[in-house]
Structure formats: structure tokens, C-alpha cells
Specification:
Layout: H1 17-33, H2 47-57, E1 69-74, H3 77-98, H4 101-107, H5 118-121, E2 124-131, H6 143-160, E3 164-165, H7 174-179, E4 186-195, H8 211-214
Antiparallel strand pairs: 1-2, 2-4, 3-4
Length: 218
């Protein structure tokens, strides 16, 4: 311990192997139920819960603890409408020629197109911005990695609290900075509609790869 690197005691609880396994199994079962939703109910949601989930995301580790993220919570109908209009303009260009034939074929099972009504119907949108540097030109490190970890923690927290989400990535996303009047050093990273699923909501019938495809042990 040095004056330049002050330390505090770690708050950590060591669990029994049985309790660790119980928690791991419960978490896996819950994670398997999470699906991306494109059909939202307009019903209001408890925004304090959403704010708490954003606070969870803000606890993510980051390069040199720079915490290079901004979370914009959007509930104003006029702002959501502006986001939808701008997003659909980009999406029409994407589906109308920007995307390759292979990409469009891969999207067919998900029944997506340039129309994004969920951007207005969902009661809340969270736009995550990556701060490529600090407002005073302070250097930031491992920005995309850090913000990606925070985004994953946010999605897990929202699901754990009973809210449905979608990871929406219109490309390019620069319009989000303009609509939300964000400074130039913040770059749009991810757009997440949040709410309850619509009555009768259905999702694509997909399967997950088995562990032999993503787990390597040596």
C-alpha cells in the first residue's frame, strides 16, 4: 500500500460449494429464459427499478477505472418518436441496399425489417454512450471492452428485475448523439428498449450452441 494507491478491505463472502452451485444453477436457469423482445406493451414500468439497474451497470470494471459510459434514459414520447424516425431512416438504407444478401438471409428467421414501432411503444429506452475520452480530453482506456461489460450487466439486471429488453443497433447510430444532444466525445454504443412484453408476445424459435462450441478446458 502506498500513498498513491490507497486500499480498503475487500467486502467478500466466501460461500460453500453447495451454495455456489445452487446460485450458479439458478442464474443459468434464469439466463436461459431471457429473450430479445420486439413486441412491447405500452404499460408504464417502475422507473426507479430501471435507474437501479443502470446503477448496477455503472459498477462494471473499466480500464484504469475511467468508467467511460453515459446512460441516457428516455421516456419522453416526443424524443422516442424522433429516435424512431431517425432509426428507421437508417434501417431503410440498411435493408434497401447497405446490407449484403448473406446478412439479410441470416436475418430472415427473425422477421425483422426497417419498421421499428417498439422504439415508441416501449415505455423506456436506454441509450448507452461510450466516452472515447473524458470531457477535459482525459485519456480513456479499453473503452469498448469496458462499456460492453457494463451493457451486459445492465441487460442481466433488467431481466433479473422482470423487464424485457432488446439490443438494438441501427447503423450508423450517430443520430442518437444529435437527438439526445450529447457531446462529441460520447459515441452511441447500444440502444435498449425496456418494458413488459405485449400480450401474446412470441419470439423466434432459436437454439443455443452446446458447450462444446464455446467452452475449451485444458
Amino acid at each position: 500500500m502506498t500513498a498513491d494507491a490507497p486500499m480498503v478491505p475487500l467486502d467478500f463472502e466466501r460461500l460453500s460449494p453447495a451454495e455456489m452451485q445452487r446460485r450458479a444453477d439458478a442464474l443459468l436457469a434464469e439466463a436461459r429464459r431471457r429473450r430479445s423482445v420486439r413486441h412491447f406493451a405500452p404499460d408504464p414500468i417502475p422507473l426507479d427499478v430501471v435507474r437501479a439497474c443502470i446503477a448496477v451497470a455503472a459498477q462494471a470494471p473499466s480500464g484504469a477505472n475511467k468508467q467511460p459510459w453515459t446512460f441516457a434514459l428516455v421516456t419522453d414520447p416526443a424524443v422516442k418518436r424522433a429516435i424512431r424516425q431517425a432509426a428507421e431512416e437508417e434501417e431503410r438504407a440498411f435493408y434497401g441496399g447497405r446490407a449484403s444478401a448473406e446478412w439479410l438471409a441470416d436475418l430472415e428467421p427473425f422477421a425483422t425489417d426497417a419498421d421499428k414501432p417498439f422504439l415508441e411503444i416501449a415505455p423506456a429506452l436506454i441509450v448507452i454512450f461510450a466516452q472515447v475520452k473524458g470531457p477535459d480530453d482525459q485519456k480513456h482506456y479499453y473503452v469498448r471492452e469496458s462499456v460492453g461489460i457494463a451493457a451486459g450487466m445492465l441487460l442481466a439486471a433488467l431481466h433479473r428485475c422482470g423487464l424485457a429488453t432488446l439490443t438494438h443497433t441501427p447503423s450508423p447510430m450517430a443520430f442518437l448523439g444529435r437527438v439526445l444532444d450529447r457531446p462529441a466525445h460520447e459515441k452511441p454504443y447500444l440502444l435498449i428498449p425496456v418494458g413488459f412484453p405485449a400480450d401474446g408476445c412470441a419470439v423466434p424459435a432459436i437454439t443455443r450452441k452446446g458447450a462444446d462450441a464455446w467452452l475449451v478446458e485444458r
